Amino acid sequence: MKGPPPARATDDTITVTVVVLRLLAEKKQNLAAS
Fold first, then answer.
1. How far apart are CA 15 and CA 10, in angstroms?
2. Measured between alpha carbons, how far is 29 from 24 in angstroms, rounded to an integer?
3. How many angstroms separate the CA atoms of 29 and 15, rounded?
4. Looking at the record's lineage, which domain of life comes first (predicted)?
5. pTM of the predicted protein model
6. Model confidence over 1-34: pLDDT tens digits?
C-alpha cells in the first residue's frame, strides 16, 4: 500500500480497538465479580 491509509481503514482500526477494550473490561469485571 502506498501513501496514507484511507480514513475508512483508520475508523475500522479505532472501532476494533474500542471493541477489544470493551471485551477486556467486561472480562475484568466478570473476574472481579466472581
1. 9
2. 9
3. 21
4. Eukaryota
5. 0.62
6. 577 667 777 888 999 999 999 999 999 999 998 7
| Cα 30 to Cα 24: distance, rounded to the nearest angstrom | 10
Q: Is 3 left (phi over 0), alpha (psi -120 to 50) or beta?
A: left
Angle at 27 between CA 14 and CA 34, to 5 degrees: 165
> Which pLDDT score is estimated for 20?
97
What backbone torsions phi and psi does residue 9 show, to the nearest 5 degrees?
A: -65, -40
Say what the pLDDT of residue 33 is.
87
